[in-house]
Specification:
Layout lengths: L9 H18 L5 E2 L5 H8 L5 E4 L2 H8 L4 E2 L7 E3 L5 H6 L16 E5 L1 E11 L6 E7 L4 H9 L7 E5 L3 E5 L4 E4 L1
Parallel strand pairs: 2-3, 2-4, 4-5, 5-8
Antiparallel strand pairs: 1-9, 6-7, 6-10, 8-9
């Protein structure tokens, strides 16, 4: 009997590698995870399908995310939110984002935003997946976001957040406590 060997396509390898980075980012909050493919669209490609809803504030990225088959919906209904956190108006709009309920805490938004780690606002993270506390610096996030997130997060309710730059990402799950330093 001849056994066929299935070789993954480039797109499958890209999605698998990106999915791994996304999962490790939430398992190890605040720790930089390398991204071999630098695009929020690749993050969307690895997570979204026809059963997902999304909101995207960037027109170019929106066009790429539509290709996943996910449904574009208003921000208040979106499971996945792709937006800039650098603009205070876009941050304020996130007050309407899903944050789950006690019966379905997973009915909440996952937020993806561009940001640069290593400089900018200093944050101290603590909680599951962090040994004690972890200090990080993030640039490209309006300071009002951290206060808004603190209001939205009442574990198990709240948002999971991914901040990505051209080469890496960090994850901040809703279980993580953030202190702005």
């Amino acid at each position: 009997m001849i056994q066929a060997t299935l070789v993954p396509t480039v797109a499958e390898m890209r999605s698998n590698t990106t999915f791994d980075a996304l999962m490790w980012a939430l398992a190890r909050p605040g720790r930089i995870q390398p991204l071999p493919f630098s695009s929020l669209a690749v993050l969307a490609e690895s997570l979204l399908d026809r059963e997902c809803t999304f909101f995207c504030s960037d027109r170019d990225l929106y066009a790429e995310i539509v290709r996943t088959g996910a449904d574009a919906v208003p921000l208040a209904q979106a499971e996945y939110v792709f937006t800039s956190l650098a603009d205070g108006r876009q941050v304020a709009a996130l007050a309407d984002a899903l944050h789950g309920n006690l019966l379905y805490p997973d009915a909440s938004a996952t937020i993806f935003a561009p940001a640069v780690t290593g400089s900018g606002t200093r944050l101290r993270l603590s909680g599951p997946g962090i040994d004690g506390a972890l200090d990080i610096a993030v640039d490209g996030v309006d300071p009002t976001f951290w206060a808004l997130r603190a209001e939205a997060v009442r574990y198990p309710l709240g948002w999971d957040v991914y901040l990505a730059d051209a080469e890496s990402l960090i994850g901040i799950p809703r279980s993580t406590t953030i202190e702005v330093l």
